[in-house]
Write a structure and sequence with these properties.
Helix content is 28%, strand content 43%. It is of the alpha+beta class and 150 residues long. The protein has one domain: START domain (Alpha-D-Glucose-1,6-Bisphosphate, Chain A, domain 4). A hairpin with a 2-residue loop joins strand 3 (48-55) and strand 4 (58-70).
Length: 150
């Protein structure tokens, strides 16, 4: 599985950052490259979402299941259909705010061609994660997350 990891210091409390990253209703505008982020009704009580991300000219994704929801520290997910993916947000209190890490791992099915596409996609995904972190920083600083205080 190929992984991309980005980190940024956000001058806001972990609670304010958490309010932003936990607001899945706003992910289509928060997560740069997201074209779909819809809740799925689940019989087993798991929190699932149908996700599509634009990577280059393709929209890829599937459904994801939230696996860790430890406010305001870690939010993690794995795919349960579609493109194999996993990711997590990690929030660490730091002087003057919060250190925010986002990790995203993915794997395409196939041979050598898939490995090449994974490498090319890593550059795009890295840029998208970096831009998303800047969105998080802006929204957390100005109290734009659900339940966030200005």
């Amino acid at each position: 599985m190929r992984s991309v990891r980005r980190q940024l210091h956000v001058p806001a409390s972990p609670e304010a950052v958490w309010a932003v990253i936990r607001d899945f209703d706003s992910y289509e505008t928060l997560y740069v490259g997201a074209t779909r982020f819809d809740p799925i009704v689940s019989d087993d009580g798991g929190e699932r979402y149908e996700v599509r991300l634009r990577v280059g000219s393709s929209a890829v994704g599937g459904s994801i299941l939230v696996t860790v929801d430890d406010a305001p520290k870690v939010l993690a997910w794995v795919s349960d259909s579609g493109v194999a993916q996993e990711g997590r947000w990690i929030l660490t209190p730091a002087e003057g705010g919060t250190d925010v890490v986002v990790e995203f791992g993915y794997q395409l099915v196939g041979g050598l061609g898939s490995r090449l596409v994974e490498r090319l996609a890593a550059t795009i995904i890295s840029r998208q994660l970096w831009a998303t972190l800047h969105q998080v920083r802006h929204r957390a600083r100005f109290g734009m997350g659900t339940g966030a205080q200005a």
